[in-house]
Specification:
The structure is a single chain. The chain is α/β, with parallel strands linked by helices. The chain is built from 14 helices and 12 strands. It has helices spanning 4-9, 11-28, 37-53, 105-117, 141-145, 167-171, 181-197, 239-255, 266-277, 299-302, 319-325, 336-339, 351-359, 361-366, and strands spanning 69-71, 73-74, 87-92, 122-127, 132-134, 153-154, 199-202, 206-208, 219-222, 228-235, 295-297, 331-333. The strands form 3 sheets. An 8-stranded mixed sheet has the order 2-6-4-3-7-10-9-11. A two-stranded antiparallel sheet has the order 1-5. The longest helix has 18 residues, at 11-28. It is globular. Mean pLDDT is 86; it is low at 1-7 and 26-64. The structure holds 2-acetamido-2-deoxy-beta-D-glucopyranose (5 copies).
Length: 371
């Protein structure tokens, strides 16, 4: 369903068409330099369709074009934006069955909740396989763009790793060769983003309820298994946090494994924490052991409701117990991999929907029937 190689193998053809289209397009429109090939192509298609439909054109057909297109800019274009370190990153690399990026309500909810609960942080949803959206068939984009601290960007896999320890992993196209291409791309990119810019990485199946300012910088969370999870990671852009990110990248450069699902995520971060904290047990990775500079939070901090209770957010009869136990939590994790198939109506009294009304109101108001 997700194919980076498809993009690459079409490259010469794409470049040729691109060149022709640029010339053609400029005749019709004044175009900004950030407009991408895909956006150009669809704008042009819409333009041609509009011209066909209004053969007795009255002179203003341009108005039809582009109104719904939201262009993303390359995250590398404005790297000065990240200097404050108060950055929250999401990575969106899943495609819909139609092969386009379409934010689900639950992903959008994670993003809105992060922006609401951390108004003085910048929230960067980073898209991997697209550079633009048609907002009229991607209904959660507009509600998110009402937040001035949400900045959507795309990651160019061809250039993003330049000058980092992962440069050769990317140029060898080892990621495209992975058996878990979506998961492994997201595993690798989160460490790369934190190495380059610093901040907090979050999975898109969370709801953020409180400010991250409550936590000391540099942390991950255990979810109670023998491995440290990588769904929530904060690393500073300098010092100990940066050295940890660098160690993870060097490890990935050497040991990236496209065949094992958790190899480049939990296994890799745990291995590096064992080195930094000089202990083998996850439960012993306290801040004191990790140079006084990095915490591995116990499971109840980010993953309080977990297997075998991971679906309790979805059942109304569990709502009261869930809401009581998460009362003061900074964020909750919804285990999308295991729960994405559970339908929720917008009027359900399940804890997830209740939390959505409170922490991502714009998104849930946009849902028709299901959340
Ligand atoms: C955007 O999507 C709408 C609804 O599907 C469609 O009518 C419109 O043509 C699309 N616009 C472009 C420029 O693709
Ligand atoms: C791609 O994966 C195969 C195993 O599935 C491996 O033999 C090969 O070396 C890999 N290629 C790259 C470029 O990593
Ligand atoms: C790591 O811990 C062992 C004891 O478990 C100790 O002997 C060793 O000196 C420690 N190494 C460092 C670098 O702190
Ligand atoms: C943690 O370290 C202590 C000694 O420092 C040891 O007794 C204990 O077994 C270790 N493991 C756990 C899970 O606490
Ligand atoms: C939710 O709405 C549906 C109709 O869409 C209705 O049948 C159901 O009873 C409602 N449930 C609750 C808990 O209000």
């Amino acid at each position: 369903m997700f194919s980076i190689s498809r993009i690459n193998s079409n490259r010469p053809l794409v470049i040729a068409i691109f060149a022709a289209l640029v010339v053609f397009y400029l005749v019709y429109l004044t175009v900004s330099q950030s407009v991408t090939f895909s956006a150009l192509q669809s704008s042009l298609n819409a333009k041609i369709a509009a011209l066909r439909n209004t053969e007795t054109t009255t002179g203003e057909p341009e108005k039809v074009v582009d109104r719904d297109i939201v262009h993303l800019s390359n995250v590398q274009n404005d790297e000065l934006e990240f200097r404050s370190g108060k950055n929250i990153f999401f990575i969106v690399s899943t495609l819909s069955p139609e092969g386009v990026i379409k934010l689900t309500a639950r992903q959008a909810c994670a993003i809105e909740s992060a922006a609401r609960s951390n108004a003085d942080w910048k929230v960067f949803p980073l898209f991997v396989a697209t550079t633009w959206f048609n907002s009229s068939n991607n209904e959660f984009i507009s509600p998110l763009l009402r937040y001035c601290n949400i900045h959507m960007r795309y990651i160019d896999l061809e250039t993003f790793a330049f000058g980092t320890p992962l440069e050769s992993l990317f140029t060898k196209h080892a990621l495209q060769n992975s058996s878990y291409i979506v998961e492994h791309t997201a595993d690798v990119l989160r460490l790369l983003v934190l190495y380059k810019y610093g901040g907090t990485y979050l999975d898109t199946d969370v709801i953020v309820r409180r400010s991250f300012d409550l936590l000391l910088p540099n942390y991950l969370g255990s979810e109670g298994s023998g491995y440290v999870a990588n769904g929530v990671i904060n690393l500073e852009a300098t010092g100990y946090g940066h050295r940890f990110a660098e160690s993870c990248l060097n490890d990935l450069a050497e040991h990236f494994d496209g065949q094992v699902w958790a190899a480049n995520g939990p296994f890799m971060v745990t291995r590096n924490l064992q080195k930094f904290c000089n202990v083998s047990e996850v439960a012993n990775m306290t801040r004191a052991r990790c140079g006084g500079q990095l915490s591995v939070h116990p499971p109840d901090v980010f993953y309080r409701i977990r297997y075998p209770r991971h679906d309790w957010f979805f059942y109304p009869e569990r709502t009261e117990a869930v809401m009581t136990s998460i009362k003061d939590d900074i964020l909750v994790h919804m285990w999308n991999k295991a729960t994405s198939g559970i339908q929720l109506k917008v009027n359900s009294t399940a804890a997830y929907v209740k939390l959505a009304h409170e922490y991502c109101p714009n998104v849930i108001k946009t849902c028709d029937e299901f959340f």
